[in-house]
Write a structure and sequence with these properties.
single chain, alpha/beta, Rossmann fold, Dehydroquinate synthase-like, alpha domain, 4-stranded parallel beta sheet, 3-stranded mixed beta sheet, 14 helices, globular, binds nicotinamide-adenine-dinucleotide
Length: 357
Amino acid sequence: MKQLQVGLEERAYPILIKEGLLSEIGQELKQRQIAKRYIIIADDQVAELFGGHVVESLRNVDIPVDLLTFPHGEGSKNLSTVAKLTSSLAQLGVDRQDALIALGGGVTGDITGFLAAIYMRGISFVQVPTTLLAQVDSSVGGKTGVDIPEGKNLVGCFYQPKCVFIDSAVLKELPAEELLNGLAEVVKYGVIYDGDFFNFLVAHQKNILRLEPAVIEAVVAHCCTIKAQVVVADEREADLRRILNYGHTLGHAVEAASDFTIAHGMAVSIGMVAVNTIAVKKSLLSPEKAQRIKDVLQGFGLPVEIPADLDRRQMKEFLKTDKKSVGGKPFFVLPVQIGKVIISDDVEDIMIEEALA
Ligand SMILES: NC(=O)c1ccc[n+]([C@@H]2O[C@H](COP(=O)([O-])OP(=O)(O)OC[C@H]3O[C@@H](n4cnc5c(N)ncnc54)[C@H](O)[C@@H]3O)[C@@H](O)[C@H]2O)c1
């Protein structure tokens, strides 16, 4: 078992990574004594695939457990789902001695973390991420929340889990598109923080796509280590944590202009390549390095070009109203090497237009 630590002092927590860990969660929770009873929150698909497994693992060690579900998909990540779940928790008599288990992808993790933060002014929760994206990104760092009609993730809070349990075996069930979504974030870590890890990804591309357990575990552990370091340095995204938005500013505009028909990870891949053109224009990044990043994304089967039919003017508008823009000015995370980036809002309109072209 690999064990990492998110060193946030009194809110510190471990990340455990092991193939087959799902069936050991009961024992782990028993040892850690986080709560006297647990409520698993999962979407319908994940509940069907793994819900019974986790319930059994807790029952085997005599921990009381219930399972609550909601319909899968981003469409459920809203206040109405949270309201329904708060009522269900109250009806089950859940109190502050109890804890939630977020079993699923980023949607489940974000909903459950937010629910845990607000139910009875805060109860404990643990993360059991089942998509690659959730394992390498959303389950670590404590960002929780939901969407409102005016925008994605506009309501939420920072609330850290007590523990993260990662079982790489669950990825075998993951549809190919969901795997790609996570791989875009994996490549991101190499570019923003660790050139050696980027080289590892290039060298092991085929093994990763074949989901070879040892390689996948190494990749997930490395991404979690980077995310934990960044979060410990800047929990509330005042400074360093903003580097995690590499490719996301332009990516969000692509996602929104496509009316969310282009999935998040695909849009981030396109966004990384587009923002690299700005870095090259500003003579921060060499064209050869930009090409290497594009090659590795394409090697994984990720898209690298903004579809011709997306409205560029609309995308520019989305950039101005992006929730991370300040005074209508978006910021960009620009690579200067593979493994090092800078953050800049000093990007001329003409360069943004060229990147969107
Ligand atoms: N909190 C954060 O720091 C953070 C970071 C990045 C993204 N996010 C959020 O994460 C969400 C996206 O997460 P996601 O991509 O995991 O989406 P998701 O949770 O909707 O999961 C994608 C789909 O995969 C299915 N699924 C999950 N695990 C499976 C498995 N092992 N096998 C088969 N199917 C499985 C789910 O039922 C779902 O249909 C977005 O809402 C985004 O805003 C949050």
